[in-house]
């Protein structure tokens, strides 16, 4: 059954959206949070497990010190208070991908709390307040086989891989985000994108959404215009791209508004996001904290980071995001609009890495915000997930700078890169894309163009040099875009002077 939706404008006319975002960050520690098992991605199922992460009787956990360090650094980067003393708790629930029948997490005593991050949307700054950032462990991965949707309903059987069970996670929870209005979807996207950039800069996670290193749960409720009373919320689980975060918020605003406008009530539940159709569907009614029967983890000692250690870690933090943007804008010579568009496209880090790999700022921005942005949009993915690296983009631009290819041919080089045909140089060689600079071939093509367009040739002879563009176009067409356009122009003018 398809949900009835109110138009977005009608929804905003009657209600104010209130956001809450829970982002799970999978840390890049070498071992799991409470045992020594490897965390390498992509291993054969159930080969990176032990009695601790399988929850076998008598197995005793030990806290991963690097995981605690990463949690503190994330908390500090988010302007949080760092607890002088905190402990783990057991979050009890049954699900087959958690073999212990509980998740080791933190409940009322998180390691980091009361922080904030400023995000910018089209020149307007929104402060996102952070409720907490706490340590926990990831669950295993369930694969439901035999059904049409890939979900448990209708499946013939399920397979469970426990390699991921026990991998360190930091869950970052915002306070309710009010006042974003019509820009709520964009604020949600900007926050997750900026948070990812911060996590990458900290070096604590790969933060690849396509591999589940970073996952967002999107909470949404509506308040009646002018009211401070929060509506009932829904929670869309495991949204794994910036684009999808924005779309999920917009969809839920329209769905909630339609239900409320029709006199109905919102069910507090989890929802599943469907990338292909751009809708959410009901999951299960959402449990409250008391339903999980939290209690302190008896097998782990409390964590009490010293103030000296916290200050040492504070000194390792990367540059503040706002200061970084201002510095990069000045270094690159971008206008306010150019920088705003770069940030809005989620391309700031990509452009920075491309420049570091050797491209000029304007060239890096050109490729990411035009050709590659268009391709990402067509594919329905974020730029970071497109499959082209900053080093490859810099390599393509180097070929342009060297005159090996022109901009038109460079677009075909990107085709080859996306098809996995090797480096930019290898793609040029395999596809025969190099610009033709052979004087004999170019001269013959120019002669053909002049013979086929005598009226244009006469205009050039009469001093109307601008008409050369038509002959250049004819030569480029004959040579499949692989002629050196500047040399072609020189030859035309030489022959017709």
Automatic annotation (TrEMBL):
Catalytic EC class: ligase
Summarizing the function annotation, the protein's role is: Allows the formation of correctly charged Asn-tRNA(Asn) or Gln-tRNA(Gln) through the transamidation of misacylated Asp-tRNA(Asn) or Glu-tRNA(Gln) in organisms which lack either or both of asparaginyl-tRNA or glutaminyl-tRNA synthetases. The reaction takes place in the presence of glutamine and ATP through an activated phospho-Asp-tRNA(Asn) or phospho-Glu-tRNA(Gln).
User: Where do transmembrane segments lie in this chain?
Assistant: none
GO terms in the biological process aspect are: glutaminyl-tRNAGln biosynthesis via transamidation; translation
Which Gene3D superfamilies is this protein grouped with? Answer: 1.10.10.410
Identify the coding gene: gatB
- Its quaternary structure? Heterotrimer of A, B and C subunits.
Q: Name one GO molecular function term.
A: glutaminyl-tRNA synthase (glutamine-hydrolyzing) activity
EC number(s) stated in the UniProt entry for this protein: 6.3.5.-
Tell me the protein family, please: Belongs to the GatB/GatE family. GatB subfamily.
Task: Please tell me whether the keyword Protein biosynthesis is annotated for this protein.
Answer: yes
The record, for NCBIfam families, names: gatB (TIGR00133), PRK05477.1-2 (NF004012), PRK05477.1-3 (NF004013), PRK05477.1-4 (NF004014)
Which SMART domains does the record cross-reference, listed alphabetically?
GatB_Yqey
Which reactions is this enzyme annotated as catalysing?
Answer: L-glutamyl-tRNA(Gln) + L-glutamine + ATP + H2O = L-glutaminyl-tRNA(Gln) + L-glutamate + ADP + phosphate + H(+); L-aspartyl-tRNA(Asn) + L-glutamine + ATP + H2O = L-asparaginyl-tRNA(Asn) + L-glutamate + ADP + phosphate + 2 H(+)
Q: What is this protein called?
A: Aspartyl/glutamyl-tRNA(Asn/Gln) amidotransferase subunit B
Asn/Gln amidotransferase domain ranges (all copies): 349-496
Q: Which UniProt keywords apply?
A: ATP-binding, Ligase, Nucleotide-binding, Protein biosynthesis, Transferase
Nucleotide-binding is among the record's keywords? yes
Instruction: Supply the InterPro entries for this chain.
Output: Asn/Gln-tRNA_amidoTrfase_suB/E (IPR017959), Asn/Gln-tRNA_Trfase_suB/E_cat (IPR006075), Asn/Gln_amidotransferase (IPR018027), Asn/Gln_tRNA_amidoTrase-B-like (IPR003789), GatB (IPR004413), GatB_Yqey_C_2 (IPR023168), Gln-tRNA_amidoTrfase_suB_CS (IPR017958), Gln_synth/guanido_kin_cat_dom (IPR014746)
**Record's superkingdom?**
Bacteria
| UniProt cross-references to PANTHER family, sorted A to Z | GLUTAMYL-TRNA GLN AMIDOTRANSFERASE SUBUNIT B MITOCHONDRIAL AND PROKARYOTIC PET112-RELATED (PTHR11659), GLUTAMYL-TRNA(GLN) AMIDOTRANSFERASE SUBUNIT B, MITOCHONDRIAL (PTHR11659:SF0)
